[in-house]
Amino acid sequence: MTNLVIMPAKAKKGMGWSDFAEEATIIEETAKPERANHFIEANTMEIDLQHLKSDCIVPVFSKDNELTISHNAFIETVWEAANSFFTGERIENPEIRVSHIVKGRIPEAIHKPANQLLESDKTQYFERMMFCIEVPTIHETVEGNKLALSIGGVRAYNHMNLYCKKTVEKFKVFIGFKNMVCCNLCVYTDGYLSNLEVSSTNDLFRSVLEMFNRYDPAKHIHLMQTLGNSHLSEHQFAQAIGKMRLYQCLPQGYQKSVPRLLITDTQINSVAKAYFQDVNFRCSDNGLSMWKFYNLLTGANKSSYIDSFLDRAYNATEIATGINAALHGDGRYSWFID
Description:
Largest sheet: 7 strands, antiparallel
Helix content: 25-40%
Radius of gyration: 22 Å
């Protein structure tokens, strides 16, 4: 792990970050083969950047009719920040997933019956959007799985109040690693901003660069490598799954004394099923490594809605590393396996 050092190719100190963020860089779309796996799957569809720019309207704050930061401006600003910080690396075009389409009409078509609407009469935008940008030239291998550096973010209009005057806008952004075997995202503390509030793309650009500066990829990789050194027996795995199912039923006061668990019952059932059936991460004769357990959690998380995906991805890291520490005597997560 001493060989993995990620730094910008040229120093950023003293640079005027706002100078870079005045104009969003245009990302040229190129054809790419269909993926067998996606970083998120349930209730989403894949679209390209051009569709967001040309076929979707941009919501406004209703009290003063001020524009919100559009989905495509969000993506382009993060993409530009990645290119600025990781100069010399190959930055892939973003993979974009959307959900919860909001349909409308232009004023001239208000009184038309639905079956007579033309495409030019319709408007639409997506309430929730998530994107992921790979940096394939920065990679490492953990337990035989290739991990590539990945950057991305989430925008969910349902987390904002658009029925008011223009105010700060909320985003989630991350930098971490994607397991290229299954496209599971590994999200870590220093590489995740769960409630980024900005009022312009300049602020967004600056905040993303600051996150890149704070993120320690070597520490993140080392943490994931340590997961491969510990194993759960079948009894311990069953105990952990059972305690996870009990978590939502705990009395409120008692639940607060236990580390948080955001994974749903349906996802816990998926983890139990994958314990026997997952091609890449099922149990073996010597039990289940904590690395495999972690990937069962992140794999189940791919069924989350976009707006809760990153919080649960980060929580999967908390649970896996916490239980791993409990196997070595740490008491904080011992409830899950005792």
